[in-house]
Write a structure and sequence with these properties.
- This protein has a twelve-stranded mixed β-sheet with strand order 6-7-8-9-10-5-11-4-3-2-1-12.
- The chain is globular and about 60 Å long.
- Helix 5 crosses helix 7.
- It is of the alpha+beta class.
- Strand 9, helix 7 and strand 10 form a beta-alpha-beta unit.
- It starts with 10 loop residues before the first helix and ends with a strand.
Length: 367
C-alpha cells in the first residue's frame, strides 16, 4: 500500500520525492493545467509506477487536478491515489480530467461527468481569413479603425515596463474592484513583478495608454495557455480580442502548436444529457448567470473557432456531489474565511471610493 510522505522519518527522502515530482511535472507535464500543477499551493502524490497526481485538499476531499503526469496509462497511478486517500480517510475526487482518463476512473469506481469544455486554438494554420472567424475579424478591424494598436512580447523590457506598467496596474485594479473575491487553484492573478518574465499582449489606445492586456504561460510540448485577461472600463471594444490575435499570431510564427483559452465552465452541456449530474450543472449554470456569465465567456472564446475539448469531474458517488462542490469552491476561494475577509476589505475600499491593485523514488504525497 502507498504511504504518505509525511510519515517517512528521513527528511532527505521527502526532498528526494519532491524533486522527483517536480522534475516529472516539468519534463512530462502538458496542457492548460500545467502552470497550476506547478503551483506551490498543491500537493503531489507520487505513485509506485512513477506517475504524479497533483491535488488540492479541502476538508476531507483530496481533489486531483487533471490526469496523472508522466505515465501513458492513468489507471495504476489513479488506483494508488484513490487507495491512499481512502487509507487516510479522505474522499478522492478529480477535477478537469481528460477523455483519456474517463474509462479508468469509471473502472476504479468513480462517477464521471463533464464540467465544461476547454477551448483550444490550433496554431498550425491560424488565420482570421475564415468564415468561422468572421466575427473575430470584424471585431479586431473595428478596434484598429478606432486607433487601437497591439503589441506582444515575452516579457516587458525596462522601457516598456516604465511606460506601460502603471496603466496595466490601473486596469487590474478596476477589474478587482468589481470581480468579487480573488480566485486561485486553476485561476491566475496579476503580479506586476512578473511582467518582465511573462508572455504578454497589450492593446494600446490611440493616446498610447493600455486598453487591455492578456498574459500567457507555457503549457508544455510546444503549447501555450491564456493565463488571464483584463480590459479597461470604457475602453475601445475589440481591444482584448485583438491582443489575443496578436499573441496567437506570434506563437504560430514561432512554431507553437496550440493556444489554450482555458476551460469554459459549464459550457456546451445539454439539458437533456443522459448523465444526471450534467443536467444538474445545466440548471446550475442558469442559477449562477447573474454572478458568473457562463454563456458570455463561452461566446467570447467561440469567436476564435477553437476545438472544444471536454473536461470531466469524478467523485465516488452522488452522495459526494454537494461536498465536492463546496470543496472545489473552497479551493478556488482559498478557504471561505479568507474569501470573507477579502470581501470585507474590498467593500471597505470601494465604500471609501478607493481602488486597490495587488502587487504585487518513494511513494506518497509531497508539497
Amino acid at each position: 500500500m502507498s504511504a504518505s510522505i509525511q510519515d517517512m522519518p528521513v527528511k532527505t527522502n521527502q526532498a528526494s520525492v519532491a524533486e522527483q515530482a517536480e522534475q516529472t511535472i516539468r519534463s512530462r507535464g502538458h496542457g492548460a493545467l500545467l502552470p497550476f500543477q506547478l503551483g506551490t499551493d498543491k500537493r503531489r502524490f507520487v505513485a509506485p509506477d512513477g506517475g504524479v497526481v497533483v491535488s488540492g485538499t479541502y476538508g476531507r476531499f483530496e481533489v486531483a487536478l487533471g490526469d496523472p503526469i508522466g505515465v501513458d496509462d492513468p489507471a495504476p497511478s489513479m488506483a494508488a491515489f484513490i487507495a491512499t486517500c481512502r487509507a487516510r480517510h479522505q474522499i478522492p475526487a478529480v477535477y478537469q480530467a481528460s477523455d483519456g482518463s474517463v474509462s479508468a476512473l469509471g473502472a476504479l469506481g468513480l462517477r464521471t461527468f463533464r464540467v465544461g469544455h476547454e477551448a483550444v486554438v490550433r496554431l498550425a494554420d491560424f488565420t482570421l481569413k475564415t468564415p468561422r472567424r468572421a466575427n473575430l475579424r470584424h471585431t479586431v478591424t473595428r478596434a484598429r479603425r478606432g486607433g487601437v494598436t497591439f503589441t506582444f512580447s515575452h516579457g516587458l523590457d525596462a522601457a516598456e515596463r516604465a511606460r506601460l506598467l502603471p496603466g496595466l496596474i490601473e486596469i487590474d485594479a478596476q477589474w478587482q474592484a468589481t470581480a468579487g473575491p480573488p480566485l486561485r487553484f486553476t485561476i491566475g492573478h496579476f503580479d506586476p513583478a512578473e511582467v518582465d518574465k511573462l508572455a504578454i499582449a497589450v492593446a494600446l489606445e490611440a493616446d498610447g495608454q493600455p486598453a487591455a492586456f492578456a498574459t500567457f504561460r507555457p503549457a508544455g510540448q510546444g503549447a501555450w495557455v491564456l493565463d488571464l485577461m483584463r480590459r479597461r472600463v470604457g475602453g475601445t471594444p475589440g481591444a482584448l480580442e485583438g491582443g489575443l490575435v496578436e499573441a496567437a499570431t506570434a506563437f504560430a510564427s514561432a512554431g507553437a502548436t496550440d493556444l489554450s483559452l482555458g476551460l469554459a465552465p459549464l459550457a456546451r452541456l445539454s439539458g437533456d444529457a443522459t448523465v444526471r449530474e450534467e443536467r444538474a450543472l445545466v440548471f446550475g449554470a442558469r442559477v449562477v448567470r447573474r454572478w458568473y456569465d457562463v454563456d458570455g465567456l463561452a461566446f467570447f472564446k467561440s469567436k476564435f473557432d477553437p476545438v472544444w475539448v471536454p473536461r470531466y469531474a469524478a467523485v465516488p458517488s452522488r452522495m459526494n456531489l454537494i461536498g465536492y462542490a463546496i470543496a472545489l469552491l473552497g479551493l478556488h476561494l482559498g478557504g471561505y474565511r479568507a474569501a470573507g475577509r477579502q470581501a470585507i476589505r474590498r467593500f471597505s475600499f470601494t465604500a471609501a471610493g478607493r481602488l486597490r491593485a495587488t502587487k504585487a523514488t518513494a511513494v506518497g504525497f509531497v508539497r
